[in-house]
Sequence to fold (455 residues):
Amino acid sequence: MSQLVSVSKRRRHLPIVVSLFVFSLLLPIQIFVGPLRLSPYRIVLIALLGPCLIMWISGRVGKIRAADVLMILHTLWATIALIVLHGFETGTEPAGIYFIEVMGAYLVSRCFIRSRYDFEALVHTLFLISVILIPLTALESIAGIRVFNKLVGAIATAPTLYYIEPRLGMDRAYGPFSHPILYGVFCASILGLAYYVLGRARTRFAAALRAGLVAIATFFSLSSGPFVALAVQFILMIWNRVTRRIRRRWALLGVGIAIAYVIVDLYSNRAPLEVFISYLTFNVHNSYVRIAIWDYGTAELMRNPVFGIGFNDWVRPYWMGGSIDNFWLVMAIRSGFPGVILFAAAMVLLCFKIGGLRQLDPIVYDYRMGWLISVIGVAIAGGTVHLWDAVFCYFIFLLGSGVWMLDQEPTERLASSEFHAKSDLGRQGPARMAARGKIAFDVSEPIQGNRRKLR
Fold:
């Protein structure tokens, strides 16, 4: 007898391990063991790293992928760089923490987000968190009351929150993170996921409403980087909708971006990067500082291209602060070109592999689109802000959460390319009915054409 899988009856609860990790990211608590700072998410990752490595190596969570290998090579190179630059005794501790944060976060999602149902539960949880944060961060931004810091400070050691200049007449909300940028990036990353994963079985208005709530949550960070992440995702969502009947539309978009870059380079008296940065910041001062960071940061990288400078100080003018508002530049400066290239290669390879899947179930097709748009949005925003602590681990966790799409059995894919080509958010038909639980797909063999079984 064919095995029928009813969408409405499948488990939609987030795995306990994933729930534990996600909620540990939201606890701004600092625990010190001697000089070592242990945040809740680090404690969770330390406990889970060993079991996850065993599951991954044994093949219990699918075959080892090239992106997996690139990610572990990145952590190994970063470890070598820190030990070379700071010595074995001093470099071992930060190298170990870095390995735990990168491989731990990646393998948690790699090992425990293994189906569309796990993925949907994850997105549902992230969306609920962003909605719950809206009134709390609105209170922070409008009234200046640091809700999370006060609550945590009453029972544990909370991180120190430094004064940040208000914007638009409001304070910048920290939320449960150590900086408004981190809060904003966390919320912004949920936009594409909420629209395509949670909105696909409902009306387009409901999907747009979810996207709007994510945008509102992000707004209270009042940070340009998260706003960039939102803008990129909205643009990609609109492009996907408008060009859905055009073949190779993403290649066409890439060509258009390349042409725009060349035009700006030819007709502007500034470098294209300077032009783009000037439009991605709140004011002229921020734009100038970011351009200066890029100039002096890349110069430092060229002086130390192999191992970077680790946690040593970088050369800059006396008036510039020590922070580098560029995630990719920070990674390159700390571990050299090999470090950032290996990490970027893992991310790009995952995007191309997942984006290149064909004959997908229409539901998975939309889930894939949501994951791709969210990852690309955060990656581009990383060129204007740095990601560290909990949100750094969260971004890597987000990368690993899409690998399950590569590990689907052939019986979970549709043989009809017509389903793949026509899958789109809000479209009537078998896919949408299935998401509402009105159809049970027969997964004992690929579905041919429009053949389906009604409950």
